[in-house]
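Regression test case RT-17, inverse folding.

Input:
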């Protein structure tokens, strides 16, 4: 049987110093100025063979009409048909194990949990996320619509951190 080690499930997310992913309007646009090549996003994306997105995130993407992940297949928990924008997406059961199994079936590489904190937390609670890569931006928002308490991540331990010249800190947590 093939090893699952190349099917690592990773939640790769940016957040403010006080843990908000989105601002009070639900936007993550505030993060943009801090994304520099040194953070490693392009290197990370090069390893991704499937991305798990929430239905709400997919619907926002579909409203814009363009799949932002190129040929990377998307796995979307949905019990009704997805809007067809020519994207390589598959609707699956809202059950965490079904989402991860469908993503792992797409190839030998990283499964990226993207775009929805509640979905990521459900997958983490089910023991299906292997690693968190959290990018703490040098901003305090005070409030927002999605929040991560990085000081309380049951089942995960901080494995290391890297500081960047623009004030961003990358924190890597491993399940263990």
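Golden output:
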């Amino acid at each position: 049987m093939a090893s699952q080690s190349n099917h690592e499930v990773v939640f790769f997310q940016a957040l403010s110093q006080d843990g908000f992913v989105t601002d009070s309007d639900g936007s993550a646009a505030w993060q943009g100025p801090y994304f520099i090549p040194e953070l490693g996003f392009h290197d990370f994306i090069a390893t991704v063979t499937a991305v798990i997105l929430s239905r709400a995130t997919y619907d926002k993407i579909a409203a814009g009409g363009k799949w932002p992940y190129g040929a990377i297949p998307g796995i979307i928990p949905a019990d009704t048909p997805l809007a067809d924008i020519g994207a390589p997406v598959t609707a699956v059961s809202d059950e965490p194990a079904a989402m991860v199994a469908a993503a792992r079936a797409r190839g030998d590489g990283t499964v990226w949990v993207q775009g929805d904190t509640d979905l990521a937390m459900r997958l983490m609670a089910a023991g299906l996320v292997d690693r968190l890569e959290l990018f703490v931006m040098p901003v305090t928002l005070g409030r927002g619509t999605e929040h991560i308490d990085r000081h309380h991540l049951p089942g995960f331990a901080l494995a290391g951190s890297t500081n960047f010249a623009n004030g961003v800190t990358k924190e890597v947590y491993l399940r263990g």
